[in-house]
Amino acid sequence: MTALGVAAAVASGERTARSVAEDCLDRIGEGDGEIGAFNLVLAEEALADADRVDAALDRGEPVGPLAGVPVALKDNLCTRGIPTTCSSRMLEGWRPPYSATVVERLRAAGAVIVGKTNLDEFAMGSSTENSAFGPTRNPRDTSRVPGGSSGGSAAAVAAGFAALALGSDTGGSIRQPAALCGVVGMKPTYGRVSRYGLIAFASSLDQIGPFGATVADAAACYQAIAGHDPLDSTSLDRPQEPVEGALADGVDGLRVGVLAELCGGGPRQETGRTGNDGPAAGGVEGVADDVLSRVQDAAEALEQAGADVRTVSVPSAVLGLSAYYLIAPAEASSNLARYDGVRYGLRVDAANAAEMNVATRTAGFGAEVKRRIMLGTYALSAGYYDAFYGKALRVRTLMLQEFAAVYEDVDVLLCPTAPTTAFELGAKTADPLLMYLNDVCTIPSNLTGHPAISVPFGRGDDGLPVGVQVMGPALSERLILKVAAALERAAPGDGNAP
Amino acid sequence: MSGRISRDEAAHVARLARLRFSDSELDELAAQLSAVLDHAADVEALDVSGIEPTSHPQPLTDVTRADEVRPSLARDEVLAQAPSVAEGQFRVPPILGEAP
C-alpha cells in the first residue's frame, strides 16, 4: 500500500495506525535479516506513536496528512534520546539531546517512525558498503548494492519495510540509491528543507529529501518536511505552493532538455559504443548504453505526452565530478574536526589531549572517511588551495551561469540518475575513483543547489531498475514532480512493483 | 598512477588532520589521492580568470534574531553523552605534558 493509501485508510478508520505499524514491524522482522536496511528498529516507539494517532482519531481530533504512515529515517538525522550513529564507530551509542526539525515535522504530520537506516559512514559513499555495521543489500537482487549513501532508506522503501523514508543528498545520496532500488527519490532545492539536526558532511551541498514508492508519496513527504526553519540560518524563507495538486497536470507544451553531456555526449548515438570505453565527445564517461536507452525512451514518452523535447548542452557539467571531489572533502575535513573525543562519541584515552584526539580519530573513523578528510585537508592546505579548492569554487560559478542560460530555453532537464544499474557488492570497493564515478550525473544539482528527482523508468539489460533524473532550476519542486509523475504514468511494464 | 603526492606529503597532511597511519597505509593513500587529483586535472587546467568563486549556492546574508533569553539544551542531558565529565564540565587529558 502507498503512503497516501495508508494515510487515507487510517484517517477514514478503515485501518488503525497500530495495525499498520504491526504489519510493518512484521515485515522488517521477517525480511531485514537478509537486507540489513536498519541500524535500529524502533518497535516500542513506533507502536506508541501509532497508538497516539489512533487515540487522537478516537477523540475526533484532527490528524496530520501522514497519519499512521510508517517512515524510516537515515541514521544521520538526530532523534532525541535515540541512538544516532552515522554508521560510524565514532558515534556508536550516542543519544542526541535534540531531534532534527524534519523529525519533529514528520511526527506533527502524524507519521510513525519505525527505525534508523544504514548508510555509508557519515554519508560518504555510493553503495552503503562503507558502514561500520556492515552493508545493506538491494531488495531487487541481494547480490547487488542498494546504492548510497542513503542505501538503507532506499532499500527500506523498496522492500516495503516503510512506506516513506528520509535520506540526505550531498552528491546524489538520495537519487542514486532510489534509482538502484527502483523507488522515487528527490533532492529539494538547497534551503527548502531545514538541515537542523542533520549531521553535517558538506554544509553547502547537504540537503534532506524523501523516498517513496510513488511520486505522489514522495511529494506528500516533501510537503510535510519543507519550509522555513529559524534553527537553520541557510533555510529559505520563501512561500511554497502545495505540490500535490500539480501531479496530474501533464506536460503538454513543457520544454524538456535532454542534457547532452550527461547522456554520453548527446541523445542516443548509434555508434556501437558499449558505454564503458571512455567519454563521448563532450560528455561524461561511463554511462551504460542500457541506461541511455531508457533515458531516450523517457524523452520519447514525454514528447508523446505533448512536451517539446530537445537536446541541450551544459559544457561545465563534465567538470562537476572533479569540482565536487575537491569541495565536498574540503568541507568534510572542516566539519569532521569536531570529532575530537571531548564532548560526545568515542574517546580513546592517551597521555595528553592532542594524543587523545589523534588516537580517537584514528580508531573511530573508517577508511573512506579518513580518505576524504585527507583529500579535503590537502585541497585546503597552503600551496594547493588556489590550484584545487579555489578553482573548484569557480567551476561552481561557471555551472550556475551555464545552467541559468539553459533554463532560459527549457523548463526542465532530463538525464540518467546513475551511470549503471545496481552493481555487485565488492565490485567497486578497491578503487575509490571508480566508486566516485557513480555520482557523475547527480553532482551538478548539488553544486548549483537546484532540485532534482529520480523516478524509475524501465529496466536495464540485467532486469534491474533504471532511474531517470529530472532536474529543474531553484525552487522548481512543483515542476519536476509534475514531470516525474508524467514519467511514472508512462513507465513501461511492472513499474515500481517490488 | 602518478605520484602527485609522496608518502612524506601524505604524512604531513595526516598530521594536519590529526590522523595516524602506518607507512603502507600512507603509500596506499598517496596513490589513491594522486588518482583523484589526476582526475581533477580538468579543473586544475581550466582558465578561470574573471570568474568569481561560489562557496555557497545561495547569496547568504547574516540572519539575526531578537536577543532574548530562551531555554537551551539541558546541561545534564548534554554532559551525559560526554566521554568524561567533572564538576559540570567536559574533562580532558592534560593539554601540556604528561598525565599526573
Write up this protein.
The complex is a heterodimer of chains A (498) and B (100). Chain A has 498 residues and is an alpha/beta fold. Chain A has three domains: 3-242, Alpha-Beta Complex (Amidase signature (AS) enzymes), CATH 3.90.1300.10; 255-317 and 401-490, Alpha-Beta Complex (Amidase signature (AS) enzymes); 323-387, no CATH class. Chain A has helices at residues 3-11, 17-35, 43-58, 101-108, 151-158, 175-181, 215-225, 289-304, 320-335, 353-364, 367-380, 386-409, 432-436, 443-448, 477-490; strands at residues 38-41, 70-74, 112-117, 164-169, 184-187, 207-212, 255-259, 308-312, 412-416, 452-459, 465-471. Chain A has an eleven-stranded mixed sheet, sandwiched between helices. The longest helix of chain A is centred in the last third of the chain and has 24 residues, at 386-409. The longest helix of chain B has 17 residues, at 23-39. Chain B is flat and about 55 Å long. The model of chain B has no long low-confidence stretch (mean pLDDT 90). In chain B, strand 1 (85-86) and strand 2 (89-90) form a beta hairpin. Chain B is mainly alpha-helical. Chains A and B meet through helix 9, helix 10, helix 11, helix 12 and helix 13 of A and helix 1, helix 2 and helix 3 of B.
Spatial sequence of strands, sheet with the most strands of chain A: 1-3-2-4-6-5-10-11-9-7-8
The major beta sheet of chain A can be summarized as: 11 strands, mixed
> Remind me, CATH topology of the domain at 7-44 in chain B?
Histone, subunit A
- Helix coverage percent of chain A: 25-40%
Give the total of domains of chain A.
3
Please tell me how large the radius of gyration of chain B is.
23 Å
**What's the helix-strand series of chain B?**
HHHHEE
CATH class of the largest domain in chain A: Alpha Beta
Number of helices of chain A: 15
Mean pLDDT of chain B: 90
The fourth-level CATH homologous superfamily of the largest domain in chain A is Amidase signature (AS) domain
Q: Structural class per helix/strand content of chain B?
A: mainly alpha
Compute the number of strand runs of chain B: 2
Kindly report the spatial arrangement of strands forming the biggest sheet of chain B: 1-2
| Assembly state | heterodimer
Fill in the CATH topology of the largest domain in chain A.
Answer: Amidase signature (AS) enzymes
H/E order of the elements of chain A?
A: HHEHEHEHEHEEHEHEHHHHEHHEEH
User: In angstroms, what is the radius of gyration of chain A?
Assistant: 21 Å
Residue runs with pLDDT of under 50 for 5 or more positions of chain B: none
